Fold this sequence. Notes:
six-stranded antiparallel β-sheet
Amino acid sequence: MNTTIKITRRSRTVGFSWTNSVEQTRGGLSVKDPGKPQVVGTAKQCLAEFENACRINSGGTSWAGAWFVGGKRVVSVDGGVTGSRDIARQLRLMYEDYGDGAVAYVSAAIEE
């Protein structure tokens, strides 16, 4: 069961973590789970870390990212977006103004 909460520009418990470390599994090498948040703060601060991870891994390196709110992992936002990059895209909407104002909040489903 997941809990849905709102992430706003003022939220200070947003977290992001990433890794490009690999582990051996039965199916071969795979990227490890990012684990606990490495950066906690506003969505904007965490988006900066996400952009840093994208830049560092831009040469084709496989990597994995994870978003958190209040220390709990975000499993989806706005009713269905699940990937790390897609979640970042939704969070960016809170800071972009398309003439009729920026998005006021993002609804996030977090793990129980």
